[in-house]
Design goal:
The chain is an alpha+beta fold. It is about 20% helix and about 40% strand. It is built from 3 helices and 7 strands, in the order αββαββββαβ.
Amino acid sequence: MLALACLFCSTIFTMLSLASEDVVRLPVEQVVVTTDQGDITFATEIATSDETRSRGLMFRRSMGEREAMMFYWQDPRVVSMWMRNTYIPLDMLFVAADGIVVHVESNTVPHSLDVISAGREVSAVMEIVAGSAAKLGIKPGTRLIHRFFRGS
């Protein structure tokens, strides 16, 4: 009987562990990034709730060159990010309420618990494949065009 109870508990634990690693896909919207090289469109998953922002790109194993995830807060705030359970190295674009990139954190380290922040209030953070910001000319001052940003 004890062996059966242990097997049951082990099975439940395994199921819960696997469920926590499920990849969650979010609604996709187009975000246009305006650079000196021209406009670049990203198919961007949008995270607007505490639940979706806390999950982010965790457990993802890949992401396309023109795919992104954007974390959005209606009220600007100082945002801290990390790479817990994130397998993909990323560039993080910290974006003000007007859609202007104010900070780029390049080549973040997968699984790192180091805190990443722009050190100022932002309305969004957009994550793209590591190295893309430099390759595409995305830097502070670059504009993102999307319905979230004033003046878009």
